[in-house]
């Protein structure tokens, strides 16, 4: 007699079970879910919006130690970030790469000896294997001096790195999923009640039924909403609110303008208010300028670059560039909110520590809250968080991410060539991808290599010509790629695809962007 298939349980009625629920789909939450899943824990990650929908897609997009933090005595933070810098660049060389920075010397800001001393520390606080050290430069003879005002004749060059921040979050989430985690986007945690043996959690899908979940431990990685999560969502077994800390929310705004220079260096500019502003080559045709440090007292979800911040950024870079930058030049602006621990009451926002803290909450089922953090140290933060969760659950499991690559980052394995520097590995990969898919136009091949690394070959499949990729929904963007973003990278709307999974929105006009949104709407209803 054939077995009768039993109906699957309705998740809105029968609780699901996991070891750890991670709340927050930014870089910290995705990194922690990845690390925990790689250690064999049953993990659920929930994010009420899209992955990297907020701060983690609104950074200055740097992999750096934080040169300016030395001035505030943050030596431990800088050392930790510098240690992670090359390690991180090697883990995903398709979405991260080295970048040299030119700091024009303005004697009215800081004396040359102070800058040299700071750069010496920056070069030697942690080991460098292949990033070059700092040196002086004559701006009258260097390409970086061409777009600057003639009064700037001397400068300093040092090394850091650049990252596609939103794609980094997506890659960490993909890795988490492939190691067994369940990733739920557009799914809010609306209530989490703590009991002695675990957490009873209600998750609310956007436009869908509620999901009841039982978790042994909970990680609060809600970023700017970490304090409000403890205050408004998490409760004790008796319904009491949990104690929390006071976060200091600091908004950092950025502007994007048409390309201001032709060389590949970025700039670090010193300002009279003791802050700094970066000007970075961006998306081939643009320059990214940022950031500000402005106290935010409203909802972090409403953060945007104000007219005053845009004017401030234009004014500061115009102190250095020969051609002034004005607000009318701005093609796009965005703002992220950094959640900083409020332990330096009265200090300037730019002086508040950017280091993170992990807080294990006692009295009941395991609860770990992540306070602060930055992209460069996300892997180390996730490793320490996973160690802490293991201790709270009474079973420590070995760390594994120190030498791991992120999805698409295994370039030497794919090309079959011995590893070199990340830049060398990527150049070899682009050539190999071009040979395998010679029909791809070079600009498209380069973009796909940058976005997906070796994973591009997976969804390109057996395609033999552009027509095999389906309709071209927008210039250079075909149905096959959009289907990949929808099915494998949690993209639901045009904005997900054009402003987070990529920055193609900058290169398209309103009609072309609408075509992409319409494609998603026809398939998802979003």
CA radius of gyration is: 24 Å
| Average pLDDT number | 92
**What is the approximate shape?**
globular
Quote the beta fraction: 15-25%
Care to count the β-strands?
21
Ordered list of secondary-structure elements with their pairings:
Layout: E1 16-23, H1 27-38, E2 43-47, E3 62-63, H2 75-91, E4 96-104, H3 112-124, E5 135-138, E6 154-163, H4 165-178, E7 182-185, E8 187-194, E9 199-205, E10 210-220, H5 226-232, E11 234-235, E12 247-258, E13 266-270, E14 276-282, E15 286-290, E16 294-295, H6 307-318, E17 332-341, E18 357-361, E19 367-371, H7 378-393, H8 411-415, H9 422-436, H10 442-452, H11 456-460, E20 472-474, E21 477-478, H12 479-488, H13 494-500, H14 510-524
Parallel strand pairs: 1-2, 1-10, 2-7, 4-13, 8-11, 10-19
Antiparallel strand pairs: 3-6, 4-6, 5-6, 8-9, 9-10, 12-15, 12-16, 12-17, 13-14, 14-15, 18-19, 20-21
Structural descriptors:
526 residues; 21 strands; alpha/beta
